[in-house]
UniProtKB/TrEMBL annotation, chains A, B:
GO terms for molecular function: DNA-binding transcription factor activity; transcription cis-regulatory region binding. Residues 4-58 form the HTH lacI-type domain. It comes from Clostridium cellulovorans (strain ATCC 35296 / DSM 3052 / OCM 3 / 743B). InterPro entries: HTH_LacI, LacI/GalR-like_sensor, Lambda_DNA-bd_dom_sf, Peripla_BP_I. SUPFAM superfamilies: lambda repressor-like DNA-binding domains (SSF47413), Periplasmic binding protein-like I (SSF53822). SMART domains: HTH_LACI (SM00354). Keywords: DNA-binding, Repressor, Transcription, Transcription regulation. Pfam families: LacI, Peripla_BP_3. The lineage of its organism: Bacteria, Bacillati, Bacillota, Clostridia, Eubacteriales. This is Transcriptional regulator, LacI family.
Length: 343, 343
């Protein structure tokens, strides 16, 4: 079946193309009955109003791409929805591009810029350590959103939105210390991590030190490389091993809520309880941290505000209202039922 | 900064373009030191090997798009990963396109086909009720993946992969009946739903009838339209209302695991327990159903196999090995700790 055109519709209706166009575009200058008749014919013939086709095309030359690492991470779900809403509101089209763990996001971005004539880019999640010469190849404004980086980025060439992963992590571990916990295990990223994992780990170390607690190497546990990082199954596997090792500890600080949930499950499966036997805390503030039983004490990142700020900054730069900006949001310590006070 | 080309690299190295190309492409026919020197220069100048650029371009004319409704639904996360892996393995590029709740997926698909010269499409999730004339405008093979439809689709024009949502739902409710439950509430989709919601609801009704249990209208609860459908918050709100209504029931059958988790939370917040006071079951077999406390009894859909079959069928049709195919997978009743036997 050939696609039907606006000319065919005009012919069937016995009117001119411009009249059909007026009907489609809700133009006031058209007879009501004529419009109704035209819309009927359009419906009967499943004609796709050029409208939407035109929109899509028009939008396509004004595209923003969101490059995401870790598409299955529920932390990003709400952000993606807000990105989409905000970008479409500005009459730009929204391209969601998944970047594989092994892919270089800058290479993907450079290709996308060429292909889609992008006006801007959001990098969401993942590590981010690229030489400045490489970043300079990105000829459009871009924002790093919720990407922790230990690298000294040239703050004039890109914008960023995040929480202070070090400070928030410090806040969480300091909270555990304030309740009398001194034997606090952590489930964290590999030591060569240069991203949020490293920053959150440093917050843990710093909080312990400032509370006069000695660092115990045996309580520092690294996510397993062969399992998805930051996942429930990873938290489960690491905690199972920790429990079986017989180490003495009273609390687990998992650097993500998903890891924390896996840790809880491992504790339950060993016949112990949370928080009566072990306290467990997470990071991120996922919905499931609230819905879990017990609810998980966590650091809530204000994802909605962060997503909105990401797009606002991107458009400020695109429209040359402002140069690169860097916004750090406050996380919120959300007290659940997964921590027992030892005082 | 201008992008550096392969010619520039060749010039700097004092070799021919073909030598640089051999170095990049790991061609055996090149002196080791020359290769090392070239790779050094490439690194220094942050030259993006044409390789990846070429790959991307070549792939782009062989693209498969996955159109997804409900990107934040964790049920789809694992499927997306497998789609991507399988599509890339076949040297096709993978385009993930989010379709808004209010958008018409066929319109989006038609535009994508034109723009990207798609070779095939996967529709993932959502309702699917389009007149055949409209479907015929899709000029490339497509597969409906995990899309329940009550509509009589012309089985020759498209392929499908799913579980039998009616049968699996029947299986779950029949299981509750077998344990002595007769007052089984359900949290389901609006009655005008023409998709999995409707099929799963019919399975519930049919199982009750076949067990000689009278249908109680007051125990049939509909997801709230103002909240995300199939979400934890929706399950929570509906269950809270159900509990406050004072209706007498012993079990809740939620038509998704996320709803079931929200239901559990509402029960906990009312001071009751799962399964001691109320049994709760879900549908889908999400990871979190296993990690939840208590683990949720559910119907596990074999998402990995279904995702693989989706791509296999799509390529069979693209390569004209086969015409449209329809595969129905068996779900698995996974017994968790969220159900109490009343016998």
């Amino acid at each position: 079946m050939e696609s039907i055109t606006i000319k065919d519709i005009a012919k069937i209706c016995g009117v001119g193309v411009s009249t059909v166009s007026r009907a489609i575009n809700n133009h006031p200058d058209i007879n009501k009955e004529t419009k109704a008749m035209i819309m009927d014919v359009i419906k009967q013939h499943n004609y796709i109003p050029n409208n939407s086709a035109r929109n899509l095309k028009r939008l396509d030359s004004n595209a923003i791409a969101v490059l995401i690492k870790g598409i299955s991470n529920p932390f990003f779900s709400n952000m993606i929805k807000i990105f989409e809403r905000e970008i479409k509101e500005k009459k730009y089209s929204f391209i969601l591009q998944h970047v594989d763990d092994k892919e270089d996001e800058i290479d993907v971005a450079i290709e996308l810029i060429k292909e889609k004539k992008l006006k801007g880019i959001v990098f969401l999640g993942g590590h981010f350590s690229h030489p400045i010469e490489k970043l300079e190849q990105l000829k459009v404004p871009f924002v790093l959103s919720t990407i922790g980086t230990t690298q000294k980025l040239d703050k004039t060439i890109c914008s960023s939105v995040s929480v202070d992963d070090f400070e928030e992590s410090y806040k969480m571990v300091n909270y555990l210390c304030s309740l009398g916990h001194t034997k606090i295990a952590t489930i964290t990223a590999p030591m060569d991590d240069e991203s949020i994992g490293n920053l959150r780990y440093n917050g843990y170390i710093s909080a312990l030190k400032n509370n006069g607690i000695e660092i115990q190497e045996n309580l520092i546990r690294i996510m397993k490389a062969e399992l998805y990082s930051y996942s429930m199954e990873n938290g489960y596997a690491v905690t199972k091993e920790l429990l079986e090792s017989g180490e003495d500890f009273t609390a687990i600080y998992a650097i993500s809520d998903s890891i924390a949930i896996g840790a809880c499950k491992a504790i339950f499966d060993s016949g112990k309880r949370v928080p009566e036997d072990y306290s467990v805390v997470g990071f991120d503030g996922l919905d499931i941290a609230h819905y879990y039983n017990p609810s998980i004490t966590t650091i809530r990142q204000p994802v909605e505000e962060m997503a909105e700020a990401t797009i606002k900054i991107l458009f400020d730069v695109i429209r040359k209202k402002k140069s690169a900006q860097h916004r750090t949001f406050q996380g919120e310590l959300v007290i659940g039922n997964s921590v027992k006070s030892l005082k």
